[in-house]
From TrEMBL:
One of its GO terms (molecular function) is palmitoyl-(protein) hydrolase activity. InterPro entries: AB_hydrolase_fold (IPR029058), Palm_thioest (IPR002472). Pfam families: Palm_thioest (PF02089). It comes from the Eukaryota. The lineage of its organism: Eukaryota, Metazoa, Ecdysozoa, Arthropoda, Hexapoda. It catalyses: S-hexadecanoyl-L-cysteinyl-[protein] + H2O = L-cysteinyl-[protein] + hexadecanoate + H(+). GO terms for biological process: receptor-mediated endocytosis. One of its GO terms (cellular component) is lysosome. Its EC number is 3.1.2.22. It comes from Eumeta variegata. This is Palmitoyl-protein thioesterase 1.
Length: 298
């Protein structure tokens, strides 16, 4: 008897509190192969912290091998369209969800919001961990590694990133942002320049992005993978050179209203967080205090 009353009680409490808001995860490039962690344990961690939560870890393709390969070689535009369809057709997400993007998964999720925000269920909080919102200029660990092929790749990218075949072939070329060649970047970047409304302004992007309750950007203070680190907070090099950094508020994207970020800032929708450590390295404790409690449990 007592057992049934308890079960009933738990049911009533659950009903009163409502089910936790589902969470969608998009991993970074080479996850499951080269990054310090892959998303399996992270999903388990979330499920432990938020009992009953539905977590969808996006897989682009039919197998883990395909998923990893796509992280390098499937055009982000196709990946974004694929994810839009996945999110629209998942019945567990129909009442809305939160999303966490790891590394390049961060800017890809932002693209999903901007391009399909009017089709997918409402996305409440978008959290990007070490995302490259203004692209990158430099290769992971190249400074530290001093590896021959690394230098060769950088050389290749400096010259070839904006060739159409490269844009169609290597995912990372689509957010290569050469500050010495802003015009070329704007014209040729097959993904990022479009998502950042660099050439023309797509008002749907602005409207959809503004539907977010919060756009949380997490920067890793000691990141050696992403150059410049400021891109994780939507900053970048001052155009025309590759040393001096400008933050979001000093950029054309902000000042010329290309994405409506000034309005979002005034609405307190933009959140800038930082944590010590290298790319995607954070403690569970930090994550619970700064992300789970304020953004995933409400
Ligand atoms: C603006 O973005 C929407 C959503 O992705 C798209 O349907 C539309 O074609 C775009 N408009 C222009 C002018 O590119
Ligand atoms: C990490 O970055 C912070 C902030 O820039 C800096 O104060 C600290 O010395 C760095 N730590 C290491 C180990 O590089």
């Amino acid at each position: 008897m007592v057992k049934y009353i308890l079960i009933l009680l738990v049911g009533v409490i659950k009903l009163a509190l409502g089910d936790p808001i589902p969470i969608v995860l998009w991993h970074g490039m080479g996850d499951a192969c080269c990054l310090p962690f892959s998303l399996g344990p992270f999903k388990t961690f979330l499920e432990k912290e938020i009992p009953g939560v539905y977590v969808l870890s996006l897989k682009i393709g039919n197998s883990i091998a395909e998923d990893i390969e796509h992280g390098y070689f499937m055009s982000p535009n196709k990946q974004v369209a694929y994810v839009c369809r996945t999110l629209t057709s998942d019945p567990n997400l129909k009442n809305g969800f939160n999303a966490i993007g790891f590394s390049q998964g961060g800017q890809f999720l932002r693209a999903v919001v901007q391009r399909c925000g009017h089709k997918i269920p409402p996305l409440k909080n978008l959290i990007t961990l070490g995302g490259q919102h203004q692209g990158v200029y430099g290769l992971p660990n190249c400074g530290a590694l001093k590896h021959k092929s690394c230098d060769y790749l950088r050389y290749l990218l400096n010259y070839a990133a904006y060739y159409d075949w490269m844009q169609n072939w290597l995912v990372q070329a689509t957010y290569w942002h050469d500050p010495l060649n802003e015009d070329l970047y704007k014209k040729k970047s097959a993904f990022l320049a479009d998502i950042n409304n660099e050439l023309s302004v797509n008002k749907t992007y602005i409207r959809n992005l503004n539907k977010l309750e919060h756009f949380v950007m997490v920067k890793f203070d000691n990141d050696t993978i992403v150059q410049p680190g400021a891109t994780e907070w939507f900053g970048f090099y001052v155009p025309g050179q590759a040393k001096k950094i400008q933050n979001l508020e000093q950029s054309d994207i902000f000042l010329k209203g290309r994405l409506g970020l000034r309005k979002m800032k005034m609405q307190s929708k933009l959140v800038f967080l930082s944590t010590p450590g290298n790319h995607l390295q954070f403690s569970e404790e930090w994550f619970i205090t700064n992300i789970v409690k304020p953004y995933l449990l409400t």
